[in-house]
Design a protein that fits this description.
Blueprint (H helix, E strand, L loop, with lengths): L7 E10 L2 E11 L4 E5 L6 H8 L7 E6 L2 E2 L4 H7 E4 L11 H11 L5 H11 L15 H12 L6 E5 L7 H16 L3 E6 L2 H7 L2 E6 L2 E6 L1 H5 L16 H9 L13 H4 L2
Parallel strand pairs: 3-8, 3-9, 6-7, 7-8
Antiparallel strand pairs: 1-2, 1-4, 4-5, 9-10
Helix pairs in contact: 3-4, 5-6
């Protein structure tokens, strides 16, 4: 893959299940080292797209190229270039954080599994909890451990399928910081989300997937220009619930812009 070639290129992707057409010709490209958000409601086709791109499912029509390889013809090469983190943390709750990482490192044949685990624990702020059972971790810690596990072997491309579903506001911000750090380090991130503020906070480009089709694709600024310019009004700004929450629980996580979804809504 050349430096100018997209990390992911999707063209005319289609997929049906029995008589239901889930993807109806999806097209997009993801630049290397960027964060690309696939934004859509439940049932829009986000997870189906990720499953095809990660070689877990074959498309009915169209093409998808990931890391310079076709997802159908070169599935094994694609799997070597990617990692996938699903909607729920896939950690072994009986094992400690370090043991989870060492286990995955050994399964992937990584040299020095213990050293790799310790480096990732430090990178994701989990070193102090390395010896604790993962089942005792908070939701945000489990999700960070899950992402750390997916990075073993240094995959250049990572898929995050609704990475903050069910997390509380502070845990969501922890995950957002982790995702931003991945892209800053050169990793290409494709994430699916149903949260508008998550896409707004994280993504370099946003594709809106609706009923199996990309209806808009662009930067946040480009998408905002689709609507008439807002009228300037001066209003008294009240603190948001998120700002109140974070002020009460501690200043360690800076508040994000936008309206937070509740955990109940995220769990639907």
């Amino acid at each position: 893959m050349t430096a100018t070639e997209p990390a992911i290129r999707v063209s005319g992707l289609r997929k049906s299940f029995t008589e239901q057409e889930v993807l109806r010709g999806v097209d997009f490209e993801v630049a290397r080292g960027s964060i690309f958000a696939l934004l859509g409601s439940n049932g829009a086709g986000k997870t189906t797209t990720v499953r095809i791109l990660s070689t877990l499912m074959k498309p009915d029509a169209g093409t998808a190229n990931v890391g310079g390889f076709d997802v159908v013809r070169d599935a094994a090469r694609v799997r070597e270039a990617i990692s996938l983190t699903g909607q729920f943390a896939a950690v072994d709750e009986i094992l400690s954080g370090r043991e989870n990482l060492v286990m995955i490192a050994r399964l992937r044949g990584v040299d020095d599994p213990t050293g790799t685990a310790d480096r990732l624990l430090g990178r994701f702020g989990l070193a102090d909890a390395a010896g604790k059972r993962a089942g005792a971790y908070s939701g945000g810690m489990r999700r960070r451990l899950d992402i750390a596990m997916s990075l073993i072997g240094d995959p250049p491309i990572i898929f995050l399928d609704e990475p903050t579903t069910g997390l509380d506001p502070q845990a969501r911000i922890e995950v957002w910081r982790t995702v931003k750090a991945l892209a800053d380090g050169g990793t290409t991130v494709l994430l699916t989300t149903q949260y508008l503020d998550e896409a707004e906070q994280l993504a370099d480009r946003i594709a809106i997937l609706h009923e199996g089709t990309i209806i808009q694709n662009g930067t946040l600024a480009e998408l905002k220009r689709l609507l008439p310019q807002a009228k300037v009004e001066y209003v008294e700004k009240q603190p948001t619930l998120e700002e109140v929450f974070l002020a009460l629980v501690g200043p360690s996580a800076a508040p994000a812009t936008g309206t937070e979804k509740t955990e109940r809504e995220g769990s639907k």
